[in-house]
Write a structure and sequence with these properties.
Distance between the termini: 28 Å
CATH topology of the largest domain: Aspartate Aminotransferase, domain 2
Strand order of the largest sheet: 4-12-11-10-7-5-6
Helix content: 40-55%
Number of domains: 2
Number of helices: 15
Shape: globular
CATH architecture of the largest domain: 3-Layer(aba) Sandwich
CATH class of the largest domain: Alpha Beta
């Protein structure tokens, strides 16, 4: 029956995703259920999107009420949600100005345009970017151009000109690429798709110092690692290293498609002006209601504090599992963004995990990636460990 549901769901869709053989129907808390009623403990959270889990009544009620009022009016008019969501997101992110998009990739596009326009405004002649090997920033042309995986870039070349790739956590490799043409340095404070690699403190500080000395803009991509996942609202805050521009998406809407890029006042004053950038759907009333309510729930339920509380238990249990399981070489990560480096093929482990009723995803380097909803409790960690141990056996 599930196979029939899957075949029915495929229809005339372009076959471009390597989907897992599960047809999901609904969710509750940290669990998802397929069309046959089988329960799955979710440690993927829609690739880090569903930070509040599923069927959050307060969020759902707010969205339903907004549906009865307005979903879209275009950005030719003001609406209350957009301003309120921007104020809340600026306060949470530590930035000054916010522009709403529909996705993380669009946020990256906006960040790149902002850096280019900043350089153009200052008549510096700068236009090049330094990005990191093993990074991932999205699938649009600009985002692919700064993504540090050649297999993602090569089929679509020539891409964005003037992009150079440094080694992550190697400040000297970054310095070697800086020139009078460099306008921005883009990095994830915690690489996700690239294999779950946290930035070193000295690397973040070194990038900041280098950018300050050279009038280069530091761009932090927090699409996946932001919104409480690492134990601070945004990952840069854990380092005390404020970027000039940052991008976000995924968990800021908890499933409603919305992204944003934000910047300091200094960058805003010397970059994008009316007509430089735009989006038909970005900042629509429904998406902005999602952002408003998600941030409100984060504060009321003390979600970031909860992540700090549950992280030591999660990492301790994962370290125990690593120690006693031959096919796990290493655990790495931060907060509720963890990775296990495997010797067994991920596909084999994932097949067993699905049988056990556990959802996980992969990352580069045969890494099993764990991105649970931020509301997990110790009992869910224990359940995950039991299921994963059987899947790895």
């Amino acid at each position: 029956m599930v196979n029939e549901k899957i075949r029915g769901a495929e229809g005339h869709l372009l076959h471009i995703y390597n989907r897992f053989p599960v047809a999901l129907d609904h969710g509750e808390g940290v669990y998802l259920y397929d069309t046959e009623g089988k329960q799955y403990l979710d440690f993927a959270a829609g690739i880090g999107v569903n930070g509040l889990g599923y069927h959050n009544a307060e969020l759902n009620d707010a969205l339903k009420a907004q549906l009865d009022k307005l979903c879209h009016i275009s950005n030719l008019y003001y609406h209350e949600n957009c301003g309120a969501a921007a104020d809340a997101l600026a306060a949470a992110s530590g930035m000054d100005k916010v522009f709403f998009t529909n996705s993380g990739a669009e946020a990256i596009e906006g960040a790149l345009k902002t850096a280019r326009k900043y350089a153009w405004t200052k008549k510096s002649g700068r236009y090049e970017f330094i990005a990191m090997n093993h990074s991932f920033h999205g699938r649009t042309v600009g985002a692919v151009s700064v993504t540090g995986h050649s297999e993602y870039r090569e089929p679509f070349e020539p891409l964005f000109p003037g992009v150079h790739f440094a080694e992550y956590n190697d400040l000297d490799s970054v310095k070697a690429l800086v020139s009078e043409k460099t306008c921005g340095i883009i990095l994830e404070p915690l690489q996700g798709e690239g294999g779950i690699h946290p930035a070193a403190q000295e690397f973040m500080e070194g990038i900041r110092k280098l950018c300050d000395e050279q009038d280069i803009l530091m761009i932090c991509d927090e699409v996946q690692c932001g919104m409480g996942r690492t134990g601070t609202m945004f990952a840069w805050q854990g380092y005390g290293v404020r970027p000039d521009i940052m991008t976000m998406a995924k968990a800021i809407g908890n499933g409603i498609p919305v992204g944003a890029f934000a910047m300091t006042e200094r960058v805003a004053e010397q970059s994008l002006k009316p007509g430089d950038h735009g989006t038909t759907y970005g900042g629509n009333p429904l998406a902005c209601m999602a952002v408003r309510k998600v941030l409100e729930i984060f504060e009321k339920e003390q979600i970031v504090e909860h992540v700090k509380k549950i992280e030591p238990y999660l990492t301790a249990r994962l370290d125990e599992l690593t120690e006693k399981t031959d096919c796990i070489l290493e655990r790495r990560g931060k907060g509720l963004m963890q990775g296990l480096v495997l010797t067994k093929p991920f596909a084999e482990v994932n097949r067993r995990a699905l049988e056990e009723g556990l959802l996980v995803i992969s990352a580069e380097g045969n890494v099993l990636r764990l991105l649970p909803p931020l509301i997990i409790e110790e009992k869910h960690v224990d359940e995950m460990i039991e299921k994963l141990e059987r899947a790895l056996s």
